[in-house]
Amino acid sequence: MDRRLVILTSLSLVQMWKFFSQYGVRVLLVLYLVQELHYSDARAIGMNAVFIGLVELGGIFGGLIADRFLGLRRSTIFGAWLLATGYFSLLSESSLFLAMGLIVAGSSLFSSNIMALLGSVYEENSSEREKGFTIFYIIQNLGALVSTILCGIVANQYGFRYGFALAASGMVFGNIVLFFLRKPLRELDQSPPKRGGIVLSILGVIALLAVGTLGVYAEEIVFQFLPLLTMGLFGGFAFFLVKDAMIPKKQIYQLLVYLGALILFFAIEDQIFSSLILFTERVTDRTLFGWEISSSLITSINPIVIILLGTAVVSLKSKLVTPFIITGGAFAILAAFCFFNFSISILGVMGVVGAISIAELMIGPLVMSFTSEVAAKGRPGMVMGLVPIAFSLAVQMSGGVGQLMAVENKEQSLEIYGTGFGIVALLMVGGGFILHILMRRFSYEKYCVS
């Protein structure tokens, strides 16, 4: 069997199980904090934003650890076991913040480095690169699809603890796949650990664990300065890469525009797991064909759309012009949120989630593919680390918007949500228009219609 296909399939399966755990937890977390622990909307959404923001932000430090000390393969494996430990720690309420810290540390090592491993399989400018990343994107969403359905049902029937246990089991299977993949990965990344690298890496992981644990615990304080810190890191690394002669400046500028699109789109998409799921729980008529639908099940629409339409994207022989992709995605989301003016049924919510998912599919694989191509020219850990920084900014922006829709008086729920979703729609249109102009200026010939 073709070596690239083996590695693509295996890494996709690992990522699928990681997404099973990640999305199983995400679909339950805000509901768990509000319904089980009786936190306010503002605190639950703030904790979620800081937690996921730190999870994504840690990727840049995981990339540095891989570049300087452990290598991509060891960092990915180490991170996978930390993730499994963190997800299982969620089973106890007393270890909630420690669990979040472990997940922050584990994801920091795992997420950006597994993408860099996959990117190293393909030659520069390979026509198979984007196809490979789209397949990777589809398979990872299979895990998200199954977990959002199963974990939501289990938590609804038996309690949140059992839902978290089911989610955590996914990362165990992911580690089993990594174990059987050890030989191909060793051939792919043969770099020995640097002198003192193990000790320094452990110290780095402990620091990430402490930041994750204390950061989520003190979310109200952290949420005040974390966006500034994240923007500073993004700007600093972007400045370094622009000044670094190893990568052409034009490609760095193109990458930054793509990442700007990613921040905008995923800031909107993250509403699915916070304000939109609370909106569904409180305001929406969840009856469908005589059955009451669990609010957590709306999140399963996201991976369903990505899997079904992602397959069609892979089969296309030509590519849409990138500016059209950005503008089309922006107006898809605008139309979706405007739909709330006409319907608050469960079908209306599903339509909104579907439109958001289409927009995600337009931008997600494109950004992942292009970033890995730029990373192949040099500084792979740093370049790939920009992706989680961008995701972190997106989640923090989402948290700020979500807190505008925090409901203290349930009688005002519909009015508050209506105003908040209107802001989301305007943000999408304004940002989409700016990105459209920038995309036309920095259009990359690879993505133009031939």
Overview of the molecule:
It is a single chain. The chain has a single domain (3-447), classed as Growth Hormone, Chain: A. The protein is 79% helix and 1% strand. It has helices at 3-36, 41-70, 72-89, 96-119, 128-158, 160-180, 182-188, 197-217, 219-243, 249-269, 275-282, 301-315, 322-338, 346-375, 380-404, 413-441, and strands spanning 287-288, 291-292. 55% of the residues are buried.
Number of helices: 16
Please count the beta strands (DSSP E, at least 2 residues each). 2
Largest sheet: 2 strands, antiparallel
Text of the CATH class? Mainly Alpha
Regions with little confidence, pLDDT below 50 for 5+ residues: 317-324, 444-450
Q: Could you tell me the radius of gyration in angstroms? A: 21 Å
Terminal Cα span: 32 Å
Strand fraction: under 5%
User: What structural class is derived from the secondary structure elements?
Assistant: mainly alpha
- Average predicted local confidence, pLDDT: 80
N to C succession of SSEs: HHHHHHHHHHHEEHHHHH
Strand order of the largest sheet: 1-2
From the 3D structure, determine the CATH topology.
Answer: Growth Hormone, Chain: A
Basic shape: globular
**What is the share of helical residues?**
over 70%
What's the number of structural domains? 1
The CATH architecture category equals Up-down Bundle
CATH homologous superfamily title: MFS general substrate transporter like domains
